[in-house]
Each structure stands twice: as structure tokens, then as C-alpha cells.
């Protein structure tokens, strides 16, 4: 495997290089860049790597700019001191998000994620891994007056319960009454994309706009569409939520 590292802090680069040598000595680091400009130039004059490790914040901007310009979908493992960029990272070819300083166990999990989802000789997902698991529901039937309508799961922003009634809310902001409990929905929905954040909400990862601390052990989520209901992660779910958002579940 050929790896490109984008990291402007020398100590962080040396530490990552050391850990990679310990965990995967067969993997070859073929380049090291320290800025967006340098990375774009490197990619123009070299064969595409199999995997990129990239810090988020660079001296000349956020590294997401690089991956928005790339024509090929090279998988990226992002590193950052803060969680706030995690959602954007997964929209920019990210397959894993590691909080700095990089720890050996986290790096090992990230490399396992790459191994599980990617072919070492091709810069693309294995088709078998991209397909939803057969036991997860791909569509829901919802009532629209006297008729019924089919909704794909990717159209659903979140489910929530109020006064013992469960509602489905689409990204367009349309709300439907559902004849399901949240517990049942947890079994039906693909856990890669949906997570129960508290007693009231099951959310789609694409519905998360912002994550902010609510307390030492809870997080406040801003969702789209906007809701007035409680979107703070419950104490007992916060750790797993962090892992889920960062790609670790």
C-alpha cells in the first residue's frame, strides 16, 4: 500500500510515521506534504496513492479543499485536535477520523477500516461492502391522506417520539406518523447511518449540522431540518455516539 501523509507539524508527522512502521511495516510512505498548495502540486506530478492521512487544519486552509478538487476518490483518514470537523470529513472521502494526538489503538482501528472496505490495488470501495446489508430496511411506507407513499431511508433525516407517537421527518421537512416504536426502528435501520442519540431521537448521520458540548459528558446536536425538541445525547449514549460519528462503530 502506498501512503501520502499531509501534516504540517513535524512532531505529529514523525509520530504517525513511527506508528505506521510498527503497525504496518509493509506499507510505504511515498510522500509528505505540509500545505494545500504543496499537496495539489504533489498529486499533479505523482501517481495517486492508495491511502491518504491528512490533518484537517493546514497553514493555507482546511484540507477538505484538496479533496473537493480531486477527480478520483482516494480514501482519506483525517486527523484533528477537535471533533467539530468530523461530519465534513466524511463528506470529503473520509473513512475514519482520529483525534490528535494519534494513539496506536485508534490508528490500528483506522487501518482495519481501510482493509475492510477497500481493495489495496484499487482506489474504490468493494462493491459488496457498499451494498446495504439485506436485513436492514431500505424503504418505509408512510401515509399521505387516504394513500400510501414509499420513502427511501436516505430521504429520512430523523425519527422522534412525542406523546407516545413516533414521527418520521424527511430532509425536505415533511413529517409523517409512523406505526413503529424507536426500539423497532433501531433493529430495522442500518447502524452505519442511523443512531439513537437519546430516548426521543433516532437520527441519520447526514442530518447533523453541528456538534457542541452540552456538558462534560453530553453533546448538543444541531440537526437539519431544525427541530425544537431535545437533541442532546444522553449520558449513556454519548461515548458510542462519538465512536459512531468518527467511524469507529
TrEMBL record:
SMART domains: LytTR (SM00850), REC (SM00448). This is Response regulator. InterPro entries: CheY-like_superfamily, LytR-like, LytTR_DNA-bd_dom, Sig_transdc_resp-reg_receiver. One of its GO terms (molecular function) is DNA binding. Residues 140-249 form the HTH LytTR-type domain. Residues 2-115 form the Response regulatory domain. It comes from the Bacteria. It comes from Chitinophaga oryziterrae.
